[in-house]
Amino acid sequence: MKYTTVIGLEVHVELKTNSKMFCSCSADYFGQKPNTHTCPVCLGLPGALPYPNKKAIEWCVMIGLALNCEIPLFSKFDRKNYFYPDLSKGYQISQYDKPFCVSGHITLSTGKRIGITRVHMEEDTGKLIHEVVNGKDVSLIDFNRSGVPLVEIVTEPDFETAEEVKEYLQKLQQIVRYLDVSNADMEKGNMRLEPNISLRKDGETKLPNYKVEVKNINSFGFVSKAIEYEINRQAEILDNGKTPAQETRGFVEKNSSTVSQRVKEEASDYRYFPEPDIPPIRWIKQEIENIKNSLPELPDEKVTRLAKELNIKISDAITVSDNIKASVNFEEAIKIGIKENIDPQKLTNFIVNRDVNLADELPASIIKQFIQATAILAVNEDELDKIVEKVINDNPRAVEDFKKGKETVIMFLVGQVMRQFKEKVDAEKIKAVLTAKLK
Amino acid sequence: MNLNQLTIKKTQEGLKNKDFSSVELTNACLDQIKQTDDKLNAFVTVTQQEALEQARNADEALKNGVELPLLGIPIAFKDNFSTQGVKTTASSKVLEDYIPPYDATVVKKLKDSGMVMIGKTNMDAWAHGSSTETSDFGPTRNPWNTNHLPGGSSGGSAAAVAANQVIAAIGSETAGSIRQPASWCGVVGLKPTYGRVSRYGVVAMGSSLDSPGPITKTVEDSALILQILAGKDELDATTSPQLVGDYSKNLDKSIKDLRIGISSEYFIKGIDKEVEEAVKKAVLKLLELGAKQEDIKLFDPKYAIDVYTIIQRSEVSSNLARYDGIRFGSGREKFMEEAKRRIMFGTYALSSGYYDQYYNKAQKVRTVIINDFKKAFEKVDVIIAPTSPSLALPVGATKDLSMFGEIADVLVEPSSIAGLAGINIPVGFSTSKLPIGMQIIGPQFSEELILSVANQYEQASQNEDWRRLKPKL
């Protein structure tokens, strides 16, 4: 039977604020000694209270705005109650029915829009470490990560292929890096992905009556593998006339498969209620406008503008806008180039074809490389013509050999021409002129 | 007069004039604790050594001319205030061995004001109660009659002040937990506006209601402590940025033309006759001073019981989740009946499918009650009512009465869920020699006003016979 894949995505992005979400502990916990970045608040000691990090909230709104979301003027935090040893308070401060951002979208290169249901703010949990200490199996808790700001981005079930998911993730990663609010480093867990996957018969429009959530995915490549695996697994179950279980599965790297972790009979009851320790947030329109005005130019806008302004190819504009530093260096190089009468598309070709490391090269040095590499263009065509004629006349034996079919002789002649120039010139160009004259 | 019987004001003067030292004062309090606490059980922890060391430091500072409002003055804290290096149990065995690594903001502010911390007082476990009978470390007894209860949950603090074991104490009120024990013990108890005093470091009970405040011998002392405690705290997002008033300045300001609201709904059926009479007599005294009585109609306070019960239990069920047995010493098996009952109740009220029916509806009724008070305060400046419908009840009264607190606190709950300011002051004694308290309720952030009204009454009643009564211990 033929099926259409239905995929929705939850992505957690860890912000790179200096301090944690609700206390002044450093949020830079990666690789630190366990339980050294802690205080009464993130340890959930009796009596300690959360004090929200204004910058983290603004960054969450920035992400929402960059994803074309609406920002409701009223928002609040809620408690999500559940028990887990890495959760210091017995509840996580999150947002339930009034998230900071709603109803956004990302447009894929095909023009397809992926709807973004909501973008909300929450806090990260601690980390469990299972070790053997003095010959005994023990579980240890490291609270360094407890309270680090997390932004959760939830999409509509709009994806139909693993490729769409991958492009969406790349775009999302690029946007948060452009905003400079997260390192979005998958390996360090700055970005965590949870696709939920189900299949419906081709032609049906209703959502399937089950979904499978896959966790433990720490690279974009693995998302594709997990999705492919699930499509096959679920199709086989459906082909047999059964319905796949509503469950959470874990991705297994070594054989690119998934295994069942927890079967959900119904939605968990987190007993959400408004966080009484944090007053609701009421924005005034101007505050949202100010955040909007502080947004940098985003990748899509930049690509469109560069292509139009500089009259370069869209694909090249995408390449040079890969990250914000590269794009800044690129534009600076173009500016210097224009002063030197260098055509933007030619400079762009040079950068793209030679794979110039835009993010790390100084714009001035890019121009220097370009001038050196293309110096031949500055050589007068007539002058080149004359020199080529002269070399042909001066080397009758070589010319004869070439005409007899000894084509390697051409490089000797190219060398003779090059010796007549002080600057380094493009051998290919000389070779072309020589060949034309000899034939 | 023994030093431990003095007020803050008097000890300030005495210390300044070098009539006595902080060590002498502290020793007087410690002696009184030693002599009386076997009977009262007002303290969970007495920090004798630390107190004496702080007193010696205070004497040194006094010698050097340091001026701080509470320099060298012994204060006690309810045992739900985090005190760095000193056990903080909330009177529950779950936290029997828990020693916090940090101070609550209230503790820190009083330390910065030079106080000597003398110990931690008993309370209903987790502040779940209105009797201090449900403490896991045994009940506290009323200093006026040890066969009776001190009220609660700040019963240890109220009893310690009434018994002159300490010069002043700090309590916390969710709904009645300062005013009601102050009433039963015959002392002054101020419940500030929600958000006026930081909750940071106070073991949370009902987070949207908890308000720390002073329990003192006089209104003047209450104003003095509030001055230190009040204000925005960068560690408690629910504290208000509203400017802090000058609470001592206007204590003697005339109350001529002050409009006092009296609501018949607060003189409920079954109220103790002596309580009713004493409060009405106290109101007459204020009328003699030029105030005017306005009869108003407030919602029947019984509605507040339902709202309060649902909101407070819901918050409790979440606030107690962290005591999962991994940290803080003991595990969940140490929770006693009342805590378990509240966790069950709150968990149920927050469950999906019931949330709208209970928690959400309670919040809506809460708004109605807030608006009811708003309307009332357009007509009157303060509302006066009995604090408790009864006198201090006998020990054992709470047994098998799981809603005991809610009923004992019926007259303080509406103003608590509306987040208003209120103060209990003693207005007399019953023939059985048990204290009677009256509450003055004002709008949010009206502490200056209610303290002033309370002080006017206190001054005007200074020569009444009952003022000379002392607890016999």
Main traits of this protein?
heterodimer, A: about 450 residues, alpha+beta, 8-stranded mixed beta sheet, 3-stranded antiparallel beta sheet, about 40% helix, B: alpha/beta, 11-stranded mixed beta sheet
Find the structural class of chain B using helix and strand composition: alpha/beta
The end-to-end span of chain B amounts to 16 Å
Q: Which sequence of strands runs across the widest sheet of chain A?
A: 5-6-9-1-10-11-12-13
The biggest sheet of chain B, with number of strands, parallel, antiparallel or mixed sense and barrel status, is:
11 strands, mixed
How much strand content do the residues of chain B show?
5-15%
Assign an overall shape of chain B: globular
Name the poorly predicted regions of chain A.
none
Q: Tell me the number of strands of chain A.
A: 15
Structure annotation, total helices of chain A: 14
Task: Provide a compact summary of the structure.
The complex is a heterodimer of chains A (439) and B (473). With 439 residues, chain A is α+β, with helices and mostly antiparallel strands.
Task: Describe this structure as you would to a colleague.
- The complex is a heterodimer of chains A (439) and B (473).
- Chain A contains 14 helices and 15 strands.
- Chain A has helices at 40-43, 54-66, 162-179, 220-239, 285-294, 299-310, 314-320, 324-339, 344-353, 363-373, 381-394, 396-403, 409-419, 427-438, and strands spanning 3-14, 74-75, 78-81, 91-94, 101-107, 113-123, 127-133, 136-142, 149-155, 191-201, 212-215, 247-252, 257-263, 273-274, 281-282.
- In chain A, β7 and β8 form a beta hairpin.
- In chain A, α6 (299-310) crosses α7 (314-320) and α8 (324-339) packs across α10.
- The longest helix of chain A has 20 residues, at 220-239.
- The longest helix of chain B is centred in the C-terminal third of the chain and has 24 residues, at 356-379.
- Helix content of chain B is 37%, strand content 13%.
- Chain B is an alpha/beta fold and 473 residues long.
- An eleven-stranded mixed β-sheet of chain B has the order 1-3-2-4-6-5-10-11-9-7-8, sandwiched between helices.
- Chain B is built from 14 helices and eleven strands.
- Chains A and B meet through loops of A and α9 of B.
